[in-house]
Write a structure and sequence with these properties.
The structure is a homohexamer of 254-residue chains.
Chain A: E1 2-7, H1 15-25, E2 31-36, H2 48-65, E3 71-74, H3 82-87, E4 93-95, H4 97-105, E5 112-116, H5 122-131, E6 138-143, H6 150-153, H7 155-171, E7 177-180, H8 189-196, E8 200-201, H9 205-221, H10 236-242
Parallel strand pairs in A: 1-2, 1-3, 3-4, 5-6, 5-7, 7-8
Chain lengths: 254, 254, 254, 254, 254, 254
């Protein structure tokens, strides 16, 4: 399987760490590539306007990845641009953290809590969980009151905040499973899991492994994305005419 | 009130008509301006990737409009970029056709049917209605099997298709109200309304008049958009640093 | 526009204040009249039996208003008799506080809290919000533990109670918007809004301005209430035969 | 048990038949009384305004019945005035056809269809089923296109219409249980049941037997209506002061 | 009516008490028999695996009861095996505590809280309430932190725990009705009811009286279980061939 | 990974075929074993009583599999005994066809239709989809009117029936993805997929590959089933005391 991980932010600060995590997480015969966006793009996506500014990059990258990669992962727990990217991924599967994490949680327990960066993230992420039909299984969504770039900047503080909120989620909200609701919360799940004794699903490996899984079944059984009705892709020639998919230099090839 | 209507497509082909419709629809003391996107942008948004490509324009235009306009209308029934645009509209209200039309319909009857361009539009628009909490009131969503640019190209065919599907919606699906689910379906609502004897809400005047209404109550009562939690705007200086809101030439000023 | 505000209670104690508020709130060319019910009717509607006792008055008044007024507002946050009144309003729009307030809130933030008089009001008002499809957006409903006639009797206490519960709604429940869930809570919204920095929608101006808005679009575009299926009005002659709509002296004419 | 059946219409045309049905249906030690409203009230309730006009009678009758009867049945499938009547029924249970029929259906099959008088009834009755939390179990609601007073006027036509729609409900909609959605549809359930081989719940015996059942458990176990929060009754003295519950001559006593 | 109460546990420790309760609760002409399972079966069902182990017994007993009993009650608040048992109950009605209790609560108040044995029970019972369509009416589900066999072992402690949680449910969660969410919580409802002044529905008499009620209307009106679609019973001869319904010695006859 | 596939029926007629399918479907380093139940158990599970009769076998087999297998698949689209089996699977993941198929479908299209054996299956399977929170994505559930053992008995008829209903699902119901709603519908998905051009998810490979995926992430990341609250397993010694898990000869060992 060839899998493309898109860090949809204008910084490569997370790329090396994630590449390392994904290489450890992947199956032997999987190839993985981590890319981020050109400088000048927002370096985190807490604000929806920032999300909106990078959606075209996600679309173009996914469009370029079609035919080369078997799956694409959009590395933001807002599942930014997921519907848009899926439209023109061709036969490539597109996954994103929130959908994959809540699906996986459904095999591990009756309920989950999601630990998100801050109060800013709560309304849209709650709506996303509701859209996926899993609001009834969400015990709570708890803000950590940490910025996206603070998670890795001060790991001991992050671990402490995560432990506090995960413990509350389990003890006060009745969560049976914990989900880390930001891709930048990587590197902490095993410690919290060990300490709390409940599965802790992180936002990096969950969508990545789901992508690997879906890519495998796509290739094996022909379970490629439907291209009917709402999933219909735009006509290839039309896009070419408008030159809209090519107006940035090739980002992920070469 | 000063209201900006954004036709979020890379063609001004609808602008003059819409300007005319809005000028007829507006209150005396309202000023309205219709803008569309630069050439090279998709000329219609049926595909979600096309939507994604124009979201940054919608964001930038709304950002520029803040402080100048009292309200901004995003002229696409997908309500494209609504959450993103609202974030940085400052004190300006942002409306979009689907939300306004289903809200208005709630004062006119028990149920509505939405007549959309084609089967492509059905899944996302259905999800949007569900997101707004009004799925129980939707009698049906019926595709007209006409492209966005065909509505005005062959008006007699469009009127015929609309009458056929509106009649079915009323007679077979039990709709008490009809909603025209594309801004390009303008100019037909009065005829169908007269013939069928049910209110027919069109996608141009509905969000425009709603914007005018909300702008008035914002100014009168201070009902400006909340800026708490999920509605918090990005810090102004940050955007400036990244230069991301300025990387297109000013579109709506001057 | 000609708008009739019905205070559906057997006291005119609120009439002058509301008339004043509405005159300040109205557009220049709007005429507004405030009426209340004859003495002997309940002077507040917290109890559902009291609501039931005044529904016929609401029906008769709305019936009389049809043809004279462009819109009728039922001034109780239970939206008392809304379905019944709408049936025979002819071309007049009928609005009520809860529906209008939650619709308006949908343009201002992701979630709202409603501050209601007491625990008595919570179950039915919660059911009403659920009926409108907005339960997912309600952060909380908080009782103020004040009677309907206490709000204006001791304004400083009312303001204090409102500030306490509004603050809790924002800080503990995550509300982005506050709704005042009783028409008698008038006169406080601006102060709380200023102090808390979130939009505070009151139950008087919200349905009134919504009525004005809907009346305008009804007249402009023919968006009069549907008269199909569940919205069908009773046959005019039948009502006359039974003399049921005339058994009180004309209330709102003359 | 002493049970009061209220035909909430201004005609006693159904009273004798219903009295007979209820006497056959009752347990030996149950006493039943059927009352209807004074002449001049609407003779059927298809229109919501008609419902509204009789709600005060239902309230007053229920208020009078409290302390005399163990249960009160409101004989209209709209469950007209149910919430209002329950408030001041004291220790008497109040039932109504829709709630009782859908509850009973839940013990007999996975899904039900409701056969209602006409398209007028569909929206409100659908909303009522949704309010009770049973929309997922409703296979369909089918209008019979017969007026309330036509059911008994031409029994052979009624039976034919019922058989046609019940058969469609079973064969096309997958209904496992049929509910007759109007109290005036009495006298047909056994024949349809025998012919179709599925349980057919009628709107007269269902709420009556449910009332008898609930009255028994109320008396036996003290399961009287809660009087907390939304179920709190108005203070007795207040009602007296306003003279609102006494402004009609005693209807059900003497 | 002849009613079979199945204590679906491998102990008869509750049988005598329940027999006594049911004899006091029954109507004069009702016959009731209490049976439990053979030794070696789990003696309580908090664990879902334990439930699974006794479902065949419930099925076989219900199958044997068909034709002899008019109704069967499955005495566990998980409503264990309800769907399975209903399939082959013939004309006998099958009830279970959760469904009956929430239905009865719907006639007594706007909301209920369920007091369950422990945190183990919460997720499945919550799902069951949601399945019945009543999640919106559930104020809370509160664990008592007592094992099933502890309820009767130390009645004063049980009463104390029940009072504490019932009081919290009423005061903090807004419950208008209390439901005791375990059949072993018998014998306490009257005391709590008297002390708190709200109806307290217990899990023994609720499904028993509901069974008696449904059995009566089944016999009177022919409202026997539907045998269509999902309610279709397996062919009698097939079961005989496989000898699966006979592989335990007759349990309830003789 | 070591995966156990349980055909929860008293016949091994499907075992060899499924073993073959799974061996083709598995990853190189996965070991798979297919087991079925002892003779005398129902040979298909369309009836819920039949499901109930085999749940103890599923429980015991899963209990035995814990510690030996990394995952267990319950091979029935009713997801029979899934909650029960999960409770005592230890660190083994348990999957079942319906949950896995609808989750996978969520990555391939906006909506799915499920082709089930007959009308018997529709109500429970619909409830299951609703329980998983995906009712909004189900375009339809269509019965094939074929018995479980007829699918393989007459493959050309089965293929024809599948093509007819799959085509209707796509063309009339708007399904973007097709799910085969019975494990015995194996061997047809590729042909239908090729002919219709939409992904066709079968009920054998879907839960098997999902099990393989979940087992891998469990081992890699420690994402073993939660054992808190509703997922808590019964105490090991208690089960031993009652001898309930050992009362059948070891089924899957040796």
């Amino acid at each position: 399987m060839r899998i493309l991980w898109i860090n949809p932010v204008g910084t490569d600060v997370f790329d090396a760490d994630m590449q390392k995590i994904l290489i450890e997480a992947k199956r032997r015969d999987t190839e993985v590539r981590v890319v981020s966006l050109p400088a000048g793009r927002p370096t985190y996506l807490s604000y929806h306007a920032y999300e909106g500014l990078v959606i075209p990059d996600i679309i173009r990258m996914t469009h370029q990845a079609a035919g080369i990669y078997d799956a694409v992962v959009i590395g933001c727990f807002y599942d930014t641009g997921l519907r848009e990217a899926r439209e023109l991924s061709g036969q490539a599967i597109v996954t994103a953290p929130c959908q994959s994490a809540v699906d996986i949680a459904g095999y591990l327990g009756n309920s989950f809590s999601i630990l998100v960066a801050g109060p800013k993230e709560v309304p849209k992420m709650t709506e996303t969980v509701r859209k996926y039909g899993r609001a009834h299984a969400m015990a709570s969504m708890r803000p950590l009151h940490l910025g996206v770039h603070e998670f890795q900047a001060d790991p001991s503080r992050t671990r402490e905040r995560l432990m506090i909120e995960a413990t509350r989620a389990v003890q006060e909200d009745g969560a049976e499973v914990i989900i880390l609701g930001c891709t930048a919360e990587y590197g902490f799940n095993r410690a919290i899991q060990a300490e709390l004794g409940v599965p802790v699903i992180d936002a990096v490996t969950a969508p990545f492994k789901y992508a690997e899984f879906m890519a495998e079944v796509a290739v094996r059984f022909g379970w490629y994305p439907s291209r009917l009705y709402g999933s219909q892709a735009p006509p290839a020639d039309e896009a070419a005419t408008w030159d809209i998919f090519q107006d940035t230099a090739p980002i992920i090839r070469g």
